[in-house]
Amino acid sequence: xxSQKPVKETPKEKMSxxxxxxxxxxxxxxxxxxxxxxxxxxxxxxxxxxxLKVCRGKLFEVEKEVGSILEKMD
Length: 74
Known about the structure:
The protein is mainly alpha-helical. The protein has 2 helices and no strands.
């Protein structure tokens, strides 16, 4: 029996937007399909909230950066 290496998780604040969004989509799909037990629902919901914060933060940063670039064009 081969031992499995634990998957090293990237801290959520260091995740790329794409990776955070993909994980969030997977969580939502599992919840919608009712693939998550009641015992794990709270933990998954907390993870989803953290991922939402990451995505919003990254979108806000990009919006600010794009605004700054556009201001320099004027």
